[in-house]
Amino acid sequence: xxxxxxxxxxDGAKIPAGKALAVDRSVFSRLVTKSLESCGNVTxxxxxxxxxxxxxxIIAAGPLMSGGIAGELREIVGNYLSFFDAAAPIVxxxxxxxxRAYRVDRYGHGSGDYINCPMDKERxxxxxxxxxxxxxxxxxxxxxxxxxxEGCLPIEVMAERGVDTLRFGPMRPVGLPDPMTGREPYAxxxxxxxxxxxxxxxxxxxxxxLKWPEQDRVFRMIPALERAEFVRKGVMHxxxxxxxxxxxxxxxxxxxxxxxxxxxxxxxxxxxGVEGYVESAAMGLVAAIFAxxxxxxxxxPRFPETTAIGSLLRYLREAEPATFQPMNVNLGIFPKIETxxxxxxxxKRLSKPERTAIYAERSREDMAxxxxxxxxx
Length: 377
Known about the structure:
This protein is an alpha+beta fold. About 30% of the residues lie in helices and about 15% in strands. It has helices at about 5-10, 25-35, 65-75, 120-135, 155-160, 210-220, 245, 275-295, 310-320, 350-375, and strands at about 15, 20-25, 55-60, 80-85, 90, 100-105, 115-120, 145-150, 185-195, 200-205, 230, 235-240, 255, 260, 265. The strands form 5 sheets. The chain has a 6-stranded antiparallel sheet. Helix 1 (about 5-10) crosses helix 2. It is globular, with a radius of gyration of 23 Å. The mean pLDDT is about 90.
């Protein structure tokens, strides 16, 4: 509804992934670059920015910004927080043994976009044991206090939380019946297409910090991947973010004690304390809207808290600083909608799909009114 360039590029680079939005990364990055290069009022300088510039500026460096700007920003907001993020391995399609795998999307949503590798109880439990005991890449001393992000735990960390944790997480077989047996397997590893050419697939939910030889050994225990060709191994890195409730004001400006250190400096993306590609892009768009208001001397708009953007901004303002962690959009951060049974007058318990539909409709209506009032488009 806000006509995001990033979302338009994502739609242009979309690849089949059931109900999920997935993109071909190479196509997506080319489209974004082309969009920026074609803007007549944009000058691109391809070199490292070593300091925060004077005048109105948006820091959109992501969670891995380099030393100069990172140091200056730290002086403004104090120390950063951080968490470990991880990426899953990618294999070539031609190396997958399709005689031992099958295509189906959970509950039939999609057109066979996912490849499923089923496991019986014996193989699953052996796999879980090897994950727990496999050798992990060493964490450097200065990273030892960094926490894992619960929304993106390494597969081996999930495995050590209990023998069935994976079966109720990324290896959940519900809604994925094996056409050979007509039954749901004991556990299943899903592979999702990673590029438009349909030549690469990533292991869904298998982000990892195992040493690379261990990834070869353990992940080849998965049926259909015994001879897999890994074009990218799983890796883990540290992501930094500010403690938004105390380090940002309501317009994403670095602050201390709720007072902006500079009223013309804004942060964008994951470093603000949101998690996810769409959420990070949304904060970039919001930062630009706030920056434009500052430049033109107009009052910055306040997004309705009933919208995804407004609910994220409220979370950044009101979350508990002592336990602050990056947040995805989810129903829990929206203002509640109470529904009543028309015949009894009692509260009506809604299923998640019903709640999602009601919240989405309210969000669309409120965003449309927001756009009309603020004349953003």
